[in-house]
Structure formats: C-alpha cells, structure tokens
C-alpha cells in the first residue's frame, strides 16, 4: 500500500501545471489509486486521474476513470457524475450527459461546489439558461447555509436543519463568488438585467 495525502496529490497536480504533462500525471494517479492508503480515498484519486486525462484531451479515458470513481463509491470532492457529464458532452453523447445532470438535480445536493461544477459544464456547452439555473441554485444553497448559521441578517434557522459550524460556512462562502460570477456571465449572454444576486456579487468584490 502507498500512503498518500491530499497534500501529495496537490503537489503532483501543481507540478503538472508547471510541466503540462497531464498524461504522465493521469497515469501516475491511476497507479496510485490501485494501492492508495492514508488520508485519501481510492475514488478521490481516480477522479483526479480522470481530470488529468481530460486536461490531456482524452475524454474517453477520462470518462472511464470517472465511472470507476463512481463505482468505487468512496468519498470524493464534488460529484463524479458532474465530471462524467462533462466528458460525455465532449464525446458527443449529450443525452447521457443530460441524464446525469438530471440525476444530480434529483438528489438535491447540499455542496455548492457541485452546483458550480454543473453550471460550468453547461456554460461550456453553450447552455446559458441551464448554467444560470444551476448557479442560482448553488448560490441559494450558500445563502441558506449562511442564514441557518446566523451569518448576516438571517438568524439561526429552524430546528429541522442543524446549525452549520464556521468551517462549513467558510467553505460554502468560498464557492459563492464563483457561482455569482458564472451566473452574471450567463445573464449577460441571456440579455438579462442586473438583479439582487448581481448586487450581492458587487458587495463581495468591494469587500474582498
């Protein structure tokens, strides 16, 4: 078994950004997934390997790795289905990709990064309406979390929902600006005027 941490994976990906050798990184990650132990799951390593194949332009190989991550069932960042949908779109299989997107929506994810990932995939495919909807939903997830935590003017929230801790809120807040930026780009493409979410983005940028 090979002991691997998130920092190890981050270092490998950082080196790949410098060298541009995504194929070698993908192969190395796929090898690590077969013997990984320690602080990361096999599924997480497989997902990262798929991303590297996709960066290398091999969407079929990326889809294979994403499917393996899904089949593994281990803990991952985000939702592997969003990444698989991206690869399927690139492979000219939009119906399969849309089915995955619908499955994710039906599950009502609570991680705003899942909404960001799907919104970016749809935006890249020229679906500004879909990107706008997903980015808005993701922003709403963050705002609801903020309200339950008593951040800003929201108050403590109801008894049915547990009050999130500061770390949960901070992680979600990190996603908010990206979601609102993507939503704003989609609104421009759709010819829509600014709204309250855009005002919120302005506030974030001013106070950032």
Strand content: under 5%
- Oligomeric status: single chain
Q: Can you tell me the residue ranges where pLDDT is under 50 for at least 5 consecutive residues?
A: 152-159
Number of strands: 2
Q: Which strands sit side by side, in order, in the main sheet?
A: 1-2
Structural class: mainly alpha
Envelope shape: globular
- Please give the largest β-sheet: 2 strands, parallel
Radius of gyration: 18 Å
Order of helices and strands: EHHEHHHHHHHH
Walk me through what this model shows:
By secondary structure, this protein is mainly alpha-helical. The protein has helices at residues 6-19, 22-33, 42-55, 59-72, 80-90, 94-107, 112-124, 128-148, 166-190, 196-207, and strands at 2-4, 36-38. Helix 9 (166-190) crosses helix 10 (196-207). The chain starts with a strand and ends with a helix. Residues 152-159 have low confidence and may be disordered.
């Amino acid at each position: 078994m090979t002991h691997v941490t998130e920092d190890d994976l981050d270092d490998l990906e950082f080196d790949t950004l410098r060298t541009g050798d995504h194929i070698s990184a993908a192969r190395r990650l796929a090898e690590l997934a077969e013997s990984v132990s320690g602080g990361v799951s096999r599924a997480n390593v497989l997902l990262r390997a798929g991303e590297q194949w996709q960066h290398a332009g091999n969407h079929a190989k990326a889809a294979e790795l994403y499917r393996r991550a899904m089949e593994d069932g281990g803990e991952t960042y985000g939702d592997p289905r969003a990444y698989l949908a991206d690869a399927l779109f690139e492979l000219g299989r939009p119906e399969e990709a849309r089915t995955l997107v619908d499955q994710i929506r039906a599950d009502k994810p609570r991680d705003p990064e899942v909404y960001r990932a799907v919104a970016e995939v749809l935006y890249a495919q020229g679906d500004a309406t879909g990107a706008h909807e997903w980015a808005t939903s993701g922003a709403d997830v963050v705002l609801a979390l903020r309200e339950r935590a008593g951040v800003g003017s929201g108050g403590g929230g109801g008894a049915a929902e547990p009050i999130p801790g500061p770390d949960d809120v901070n992680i979600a807040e990190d996603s908010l600006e990206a979601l609102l930026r993507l939503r704003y780009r989609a609104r421009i493409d759709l010819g829509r005027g600014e709204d309250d979410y855009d005002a919120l983005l302005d506030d974030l940028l001013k106070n950032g």
